[in-house]
Predict the structure of PDZ domain-containing protein.
Amino acid sequence: MLMGKAFVGDYIVGIDDKVITNGDELHAKLKEKTENVHLQLKRNMFSWCFHIRTTVEKIQIDRDVEKITPNPVNHYFILVKVRPTPEMQVFDLGLFVKYNNRDRLEVDYVTPNSLASIHLKAGDVIREVNTQQICSKSMLRYHIASSIQSSGLFTLLIESPIRDTVRDHIDLADDVVLIADKAAEEFRKLGKGYVPMPPKKPNQKKKNIKLKDEKTEHPIVSDIDPSKLRPCKNAS
């Protein structure tokens, strides 16, 4: 996602595989007549992700009681480095969270092309920030802001369902699922090049639409005579 993009605060450390130390060298190189210039950047902000393990979902019933469900989940460690510069008057991480039906903090939306969108997606559950368990939005906001101010980075422990969270949380009747599976199987048999067409009536005549240069005006009678208005049900 960061390939081919430069952001405010990034350091230009080289150009065309040559180290540069000042702006004069950069300007002199950019003045040369060439189609492409290869810049080496040191990122001021980035996101790094590491897959810890694949396990099953655990639900905290009581302080010392956990319930294990058959739902498989992935655990990820994410490190986000953020160093806002004076030029960045407003810094937006691009992360929006909500409480799910188990009162856990869940990613609701990430702004496209934002720092949060690199490794986070809707449905991910935020378990920890900087090794501290998180249970509210205010705790999340405080720990992220405090860590950015003190060290310029923060870490997240993410629990990500392996299944499609949006699709699997929609409860459908068994007959609907069966019909959908049969339709999907028929489409697979038709191959990738098949494009479904809307049904047509037999012996249906083709209608051609032509545009005319001159205009035709039709007066609205109700604008002249209010008695021509038709009664409308539930009109106020």
User: Anything to note?
Assistant: The chain has five helices and ten strands. The radius of gyration is 29 Å.
